[in-house]
Amino acid sequence: MLTGDLIKPRLRIQGANLLVEMVNEQNPALQQIARDLIALFRQHKGQTQAAWEEALHAYEGASLDYTLIRGLAKVLADAATFTPIATPLPPAILRERVFAHGPVFDNSDIFHPKTRSEVLQQIADEHGLSPAELEEMLFADRHATYRLTDAGPEWTPGDLLARYNLELARGALYWASHITIEVASNYKDLWKYIKLFKLMFWAEPMPEGGYRIDLDGPISPFVTATLRYGRQLAAFLPALLLCERWQMQAEVFPPQGQGQKLYVLDHTSMLQSHFKNSGLFDSRLEADFAAEFEEKFGGKRGHWRMSRESDVLLLGDTVMVPDFLLVDTQDESRRILIELVGYWHPGYLRRKVEKVRAANCSHLLLLVYDGLKITPEAFEGVSSEVIFFKQKPVLKEVMETVEAMAERLYGPRQKPAPAPKPTEAKEKKPRKRAAIVDITEHLKQQPAQKPGKKLRKVAESPAQYADNGEQGRASE
Amino acid sequence: MFFQGGTLVLQHADEIEEVPAPFQFVRSRWRCEAYHYAALLDWMRQQGIRNDIARWRPLKLKLHDSRELHDYQVQALAAWKEAQGRGSIVLPTGAGKTLVATHAIQHVNASTVVLVPTMSLLYQWYVVLTNAFQTEIGVYYSGEKRVQPLTVTTYHSAGDLIAEYGNTFKLFICDEVHHLPAKTWGEAALMSPAPCRLGLTATYPEEYEQTGNRWRLDELIGPIVYKQRLETLVGKQLAEYRTQRLRIDLTAGERAAYDAAYAIYTGFVRERGLRKSHGPGWLRELMRLSSKDIQARRAWLARRQLLNLLESCQGKFTALEALLREHSGERILIFTESNAVAYHIARQHLVPVISHETGVAERKHILDGFQAGSYSVIVTSKVLNEGVDVPEAKVAIVLGGGASKREYLQRLGRILRKKEPLQALLVEVIARNTVEEGKARRRHVPREQS
Predict the structure, then answer these.
(1) Are residues B193 and B273 in the same domain?
(2) Does A454 sit within 8 Å of B12, measured CB to CB?
(3) What is the pLDDT of residues A8-28, one digit of tens each?
(4) If A124 and its partner were Cys, which of A87, A131, A312, B212 is the partner (CB 3.0–4.6 Å)?
């Protein structure tokens, strides 16, 4: 990421808004600068960082474009690798041996019997080096002496300018205290990055679909506009660009003063993320399941429409993004979530069960791999349905359960669709097989939960998605 | 109740429950700033709330420091203990605040974090604590991040450290505590649950200097528990010193380059009347203009070229060599303006260099060697600033002429801080007929004998 001094000259204040002066990636003059720098950088492969910086300085001359030049150079250097030269002993030890003889001069005197070159020769000999090598190694641990060993990706001038623009937008967030985003897709990646950068979020579903998410950090509510999390927010920004439709509003305190400004960005911006979108499916199992569904129940073959990871269960401290959502094409309020638990790492499993428990979600169907050494007891008290499977989930059985769940939760299918019944009113469903745990009974038996296990109500009833009757919860 | 990112969070509590004032119901949980921890202890006990906050460890520290405390240090320490280990001690520069702090750490005998404003102080504390407790000391700053039961950090990095490890420190020490009210620097104190707190400074901020922010120093650290004025200590601690100014000439080539750069630089400033239009802020204005006006840019670059030239002119290196030979065997500190020149001198004379790039262990090695006499010369670039103990340097040589007054006096003070009454010498090498002469003249230097 760029340093603040490379960002600040590009910030413009216009009334209540902060604007970032981006560069035109198609501008031939700027493309030329980018091309020159890419070439100059490549020429310095094998040379020291100091040499590269000196060459950059010379290229810059008295140009007024120095902010751009240094910014592009920073992008190049950040993506490249500089490595220290090999030394027979750590440079600090070499220094210790050499400096034990200082101060020395080019010619000797009574107090300094050895000259500089004699001292260097002597110590070089002791280590089987030439004096020139020794001199070169003396500060081999300083970054200035590191060699450019890998010049990074094959940038085109357009790529470099595009990346520079992204870094400018990120940079504006260094001075951000808080951002609000609205997104309508790709939640899974989004939450992955929110967690990665240790941000705190507060999410609520929007009536038109998608979520509004407030992002800052734990101490934010107690200090007036801390900029403590600015770096994390900046680091996070490329994750937002992975979404299809989004909007961001950042509260920023630009370094040039004038108090709080708004920095607004949305999906119409030309910015490109360099983060990778994770694949559509996390596993073969999920991909196969989706394919089989499309084949047997997709399109006109059934009344359910399947989509990927498009609903989010907001839990106290985290979120759960079930793998699939089934929506009844004739009554969109009839929704069933499906989560495939085919992974077998014990820690993952434990967290998964905790999440399911916290979700307390009756329209969630769990498909659990039988080889997981997990017993039905583990799901005791869970309001979700559970089906165990051996090799792969049996689609027919899954869909039967889905139908049964829908009928229990939403009443019999009919047109026009009836208003969904509240969860409490659901009817007891006969057990089809032992592995399917009926949670209703458990809930009745244990009406009072432990105080700490006070759970989100957000996703308990699917109807709440439709009328936005619930607010999301804070989470970290 | 648990610690999270500088806040205390109540678990299993509903919005309707009654909780004390500092808590706010934020995002579905009761939270408050961690510094309220000590004040909440009684309430937690009454309510039977499980304390998942305190993760600090009792230590078995043994103080390996035979130095006897001065009376005022004993009194200061006693006053702090009396105040339940909360509050600030105000003592003049050089009066041994660090020694008081090591005794405070020994008293609490639990994991401790020390906050300092500068890198050089971080290194100094690292050395002091390493020697005092003969145990591994952690450092946490932009360059190195190693957390130990005793850890030193900068105010700049303290927020990140405290957000993550805040609940592992029982004692929270702020050196140069007058920096704490600065906008973001205070956050670390706010985010720490440490029940024991110690502030150290020579200049406690006035009331109005404290009110710039939401928090006050007294609130975060505790009140002043002890204060001793400068006059009562002078003479005991500070040694005699004298200063000398050495003037050198530029070579003909340097002179020509200097004059050319000077003409471009001052020509522009005069032509635009910057001094008249902007008074003392004229240099800032030049810098501002230099980002959009090609003439201003040239003038700015000429100025930089001129300063580089002055710092690395031949005459200064010749003078330096002569001084090193003249003071052979004495402990000498060389101060340069830039890193480049410091490393150049280190290579030229094969003497150790301390810059901001020098890691804690090597810095300690160099300073220890200097004290023990195995190194007689150290070259440093603006690093050994602000209150760093470099014991018993006899000669300081200042090569950079661009030093501000404050910096100059600090450097001066540095070599004067001694145990023995030993006459020290400060030599400033400046180029004749250049801007350096004007700068040197503007400074007020006590007892000058040039």
Answers:
(1) no
(2) yes
(3) 999 999 999 999 999 999 999
(4) A131
